[in-house]
Amino acid sequence: MKHLKTSLIILASLCLIISCGRSDKSSKKASAKKGEAEMVTLPFELNALGNYVYMGPDTLPEPKCADPLSAWRVIVDGNGSGTPMGEFTMHADFCGDEQGNYGNTYGYLLTAGGDTLFISSTGQVFEGKLDDHPAFVTSYWKDPVIISGGSGIFEGATGSGITDDYNSSEDPYSHHHWKGTITMMKQEL
After folding, report:
1. Exposed e or buried b for every residue in 55-73, given b needs 16+ CB within 10 A?
2. Which tens digit of pLDDT belongs to each residue from 59-115?
3. Which residues, listed in sequence order, are joined to residue 176 by a DSSP beta bridge?
4. HSE, side-chain direction, 13 A CA sphere, residue 162
5. Among 42, 64, 48, which residue's Cα sits nearest to residue 180?
6. What is the pTM of this model?
7. What are φ and ψ of residue 106, in 5° steps?
């Protein structure tokens, strides 16, 4: 009888442990189903070519560069690929001055799947090139880029990186090379 009682206690304890483990797993699944997304930090890298759509005084229908010291407006549209975006189109609209300072950026990357990642940057464009740039570089900028949310898989995303961008004497495009990290919702494979 004593062995039967001990065996029943051990069996009951095992059942309790097993059911708690299952309950914990099912509660994690339930919380993920309720929209509590798990956030992960990943490398953020991209390469893109930008086309200067507009560059001049901000006399466009909806001006955004009101400060006389930054009344120059630049709009760039382009294409590229990167991690974790894959193929994307880009848009950047910002203000600048004659010394190459720029800011007040509104920018985004739109993936082939329709997800949008919002970005901004502030810095300065310098004439010439750095030693590690190709010979055809005419001007460059290495500035912080900030990730500030988005839509779809990028909803709530944050992050930052550094640009390594330049203009070229071989073509009319801006060349973009960014590296950093992005914190975003974990994607199920």
Report:
1. eeebeeeeeebeeeebbbb
2. 888 888 877 667 899 999 999 999 999 999 999 999 998 889 999 899 999 999 999
3. 48
4. 4
5. 42
6. 0.77
7. -120, 115
